[in-house]
Structure formats: structure tokens, C-alpha cells
């Protein structure tokens, strides 16, 4: 039995977890694959509240599907417009209320620090389902799980991350997570959307990191290419967005010199950064990655609610 314990823990930042703990979550996720197909009563009578103050398709639905597949139930809202926040209720009061109705809360919020704040007021575990441009720890676990499933390992890989590294929360959590392994990381972005310095400063002390504007140059050596969309909604003004819109695009030409076993990932939603013709290539694994979202979230719910050790 490894020395890990997840029962009752909040999942706020990927930085709160050691590599050993992350590996344990990935192993538990793998054991959820058959249960995701056949169902289970592991979380019977448990209730997950999904409080989503920002749009979502995959994160909310896969959390809810994960709970249902484990025999539990879901409550919550996907539009803050219809909840009491619209009447002016603050987040702390919302959490203090919802904790009476649910065993665990998954929260998505436009403000950085919202999940941490919620955890301070909650007596049930809080899972950060995305806070502003800050972090999206469960997505990073899905990304690692997908990399391990596709490649059989994480250590030793050359990983390139392309896109909006400034406002993209998935890339912040992923960068912190990868820095716990032995990988080489290349960051590719328009000049104004470079990786947040506070993230870069931390990861650079742990793994080799290169900032490289030219994808073509590094594509032949790359094992995993992680693509993200430009986070239009987080730009302070439309003119800034217009300057970077459409500045990178993955198509069949981009992949011409890529490894045959390159793995292309994307947290989705995709806008125009991967053209649909790429979907049919064996390298495109982003819809498989979306399936993996269910098993990883099943593992997290089961571990935090103490249904599995
Ligand atoms: C991401 C998010 O919400 O940060 N979506 C997701 O959860 N898979 C990525 C994005 O919105 O670009």
C-alpha cells in the first residue's frame, strides 16, 4: 500500500500533489476503465454538486457521467444566471449552502483563487474544475493519463505545447504537472501569449524548457504535441485578440515531418487551430483524451470520497 491518502482532500492545484500521488491517481484511473463501461455502486447515495459559473461541455458532463457510472447522483447549475448569485449572493455563501446538499463540490469560476476560497468555507471537498486563467488540475491529470496510455510512459518524452500559454489554464496546470517528471518541454506561442512568467520560473528549475516560436523546427523530434485555443474571452480588449487570431494552425502540411507515432492532444474545445483533416490521422488523440476525462474523474471522486484506497 503506497503512502497516499486522498479521502476528504480538496483538489485545488496540481502543485499540491507529488509525483507518487499523481501516479496513484493515474493507476486508479486505469482500474476505472472497465467500470466506466459496466457501471458500479461504489458511490451509491453520494451526491456531487457541479457549480459552473463559466461555460463547459466536457468538464461538467464528464464529472456528472463519472458520478452516475459509480452509482451516485448529481445536482448543480451550469448557468450562474439562474442561480442565486444572480441575486447577488457571494461565493462563500453559495458554498456554505451547497455543502448541506452534497458530499463533494466541483467548481468552475472565472476568478483566480475561487476554488481555494471555496475550500476555506466548505466542509465537503472542493474540486477545482477550472479557475480563470489560473489552473485546471483535473484536466492536467487527464492529459498525463492520456500521455501514459498512448506512450506507455511519461519520462523521457519530448513534449511541445502550442497556443495561448498566457491565458490558458490547462497549460499552466499541465506545465506544473510535467515538471514533476523527466521530460523536455518546448513552449510555442505568439509573442504576446507566452507562458506566464510565474509558471515558467517554477518549471524551469525542474526540467529543460525552451521557448521556440517555430513549430516546424521542432516537430520532427516531438513525441507529444499539445494544442490549445486562444482564450478569446480572457483578452482585455478585442483589438489584442484580433492581432493573434489565426496565427497558428495544425494541418496535414504541419505534420509532414512529424514522427509516425506523434500524439496530438487538445483539451478542447477547438476553434480553428487544428483543421478537421487532421482528425482522421492516427496521431490525433484528442477525442480519446475526452473519453479519458470520465475515467480520471471517476478515480478522483472514488478516491476523495473514500470508496477506493
Ligand atoms: C478548457 C478550459 O475550460 O479551460 N476546456 C476543458 O475543460 N477541456 C480549455 C479551453 O476552454 O480552451
Report what the structure shows.
With 309 residues, the protein is α/β, with parallel strands linked by helices. It has two domains: 14-136 and 291-304, Rossmann fold (3-Layer(aba) Sandwich), CATH 3.40.50; 137-286, Rossmann fold. The chain is 35% helix and 14% strand. It has helices at residues 19-31, 33-38, 58-69, 91-98, 114-121, 137-151, 169-178, 197-203, 215-218, 238-244, 286-304; strands spanning 47-52, 73-77, 104-109, 126-131, 158-162, 184-188, 209-211, 224-227, 263-265. The strands form two sheets. The chain has a five-stranded parallel β-sheet, covered by helices on one side. Strands 2-1-3-4 form a four-stranded parallel β-sheet, with helices on both faces. Helix 3 (58-69) crosses helix 11 (286-304). 46% of the residues are buried.
Question: What layout of secondary structure does this protein have?
Answer:
Elements: H1 19-31, H2 33-38, E1 47-52, H3 58-69, E2 73-77, H4 91-98, E3 104-109, H5 114-121, E4 126-131, H6 137-151, E5 158-162, H7 169-178, E6 184-188, H8 197-203, E7 209-211, H9 215-218, E8 224-227, H10 238-244, E9 263-265, H11 286-304
Parallel strand pairs: 1-2, 1-3, 3-4, 5-6, 5-8, 6-7, 8-9
Helix pairs in contact: 1-6, 1-11, 3-11, 4-5, 6-7, 6-11, 7-8
This protein binds N-carbamoyl-L-aspartate.
Amino acid at each position: 500500500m503506497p503512502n497516499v491518502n486522498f479521502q476528504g482532500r480538496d483538489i485545488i492545484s496540481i502543485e499540491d500533489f507529488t509525483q507518487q500521488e499523481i501516479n496513484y491517481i493515474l493507476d486508479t484511473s486505469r482500474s476505472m476503465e472497465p467500470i466506466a463501461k459496466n457501471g458500479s455502486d461504489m458511490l451509491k447515495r453520494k451526491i456531487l454538486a457541479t457549480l459552473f459559473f463559466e461555460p463547459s461541455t466536457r468538464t461538467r458532463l464528464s464529472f456528472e457521467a463519472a458520478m452516475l457510472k459509480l452509482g451516485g447522483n448529481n445536482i448543480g447549475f451550469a448557468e450562474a444566471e439562474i442561480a442565486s448569485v444572480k441575486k447577488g449572493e457571494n461565493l462563500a455563501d453559495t458554498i456554505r449552502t451547497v455543502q448541506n446538499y452534497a458530499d463533494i463540490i466541483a467548481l468552475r469560476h472565472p476568478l483566480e483563487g475561487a476554488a481555494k476560497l471555496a475550500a476555506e468555507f466548505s466542509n465537503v471537498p472542493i474540486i477545482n474544475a477550472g479557475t480563470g486563467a489560473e489552473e485546471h488540475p483535473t484536466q492536467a491529470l487527464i492529459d498525463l493519463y492520456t500521455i501514459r496510455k498512448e506512450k506507455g510512459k511519461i519520462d523521457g518524452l519530448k513534449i511541445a505545447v502550442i497556443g495561448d500559454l498566457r491565458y490558458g489554464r490547462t497549460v499552466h496546470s499541465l506545465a506544473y504537472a510535467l515538471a514533476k517528471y523527466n521530460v523536455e518541454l518546448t513552449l510555442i506561442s505568439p509573442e504576446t501569449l507566452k507562458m506566464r512568467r510565474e509558471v515558467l520560473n517554477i518549471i524551469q528549475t525542474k526540467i529543460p524548457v525552451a521557448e521556440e516560436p517555430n513549430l516546424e523546427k521542432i516537430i520532427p523530434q516531438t513525441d507529444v504535441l499539445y494544442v490549445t485555443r486562444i482564450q478569446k474571452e480572457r483578452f482585455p480588449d478585442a483589438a489584442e485578440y484580433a492581432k493573434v487570431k489565426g496565427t497558428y494552425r495544425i494541418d496535414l502540411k504541419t505534420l509532414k515531418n512529424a514522427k509516425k507515432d506523434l500524439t496530438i492532444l487538445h483539451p478542447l474545445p477547438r476553434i480553428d487551430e487544428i483543421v478537421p483533416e487532421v482528425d482522421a490521422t492516427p496521431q490525433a488523440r484528442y477525442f480519446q483524451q475526452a473519453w479519458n476525462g470520465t475515467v480520471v474523474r471517476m478515480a478522483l471522486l472514488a478516491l476523495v470520497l473514500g470508496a477506493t484506497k
